[in-house]
Design brief:
Number of strands: 5
Order of helices and strands: HEHEHEHEEH
Distance between the termini: 62 Å
Largest sheet: 5 strands, mixed
Shape: elongated
Helix content: 40-55%
């Protein structure tokens, strides 16, 4: 191997690593998949959401979303009953999400509050506030 091919190999590896790190940053900060930062809590009357879903806790998710999986794991671990609406697998759920103006996931409706994004401590606090203790 000559010096030029070694430099080319190093440049290609550095570029690939840079693109990988950059892509990860964009996904985390794009708002499409929520996790930790940017978690929004909103208060409102969500009785129509519960009536359509058939449960008093509703989780809108994507099948490929790691934060959605974390939210489900937490709810399951705490033995909390919820209805999951997977918007990339169910057209009815997709239309519901569009009507609710859901642009990122997970979105969890509990009582008079909704949580957009995932933050374990905030979700536990929300569950406890609405009587869903472990």
């Amino acid at each position: 191997m000559n010096f030029k091919s070694i430099l080319t190999t190093i440049a290609v590896v550095a570029l690939a690593l840079g693109l990988g790190v950059g892509a990860g940053y964009l996904v985390r900060n794009s708002g499409l998949i929520g996790g930790g930062k940017g978690v929004e809590l909103e208060q409102g009357d969500y009785s129509a959401v519960y009536a359509k879903a058939g449960g008093d806790i509703v989780l809108y998710s994507l099948s490929t979303c790691p934060f959605c999986h974390k939210a489900k794991e937490l709810l399951d671990k705490r033995n909390v009953r919820y209805v999951e609406r997977v918007i990339d697998k169910d057209e009815v759920a997709r239309k519901e999400a569009d009507g609710l103006k859901i642009k990122s996931v997970p979105v969890i409706y509990i009582g008079d509050q909704s949580m957009r994004g995932f933050d374990e401590a905030k979700l536990v606090e929300l569950l406890e506030k609405h009587g869903k203790k472990a």
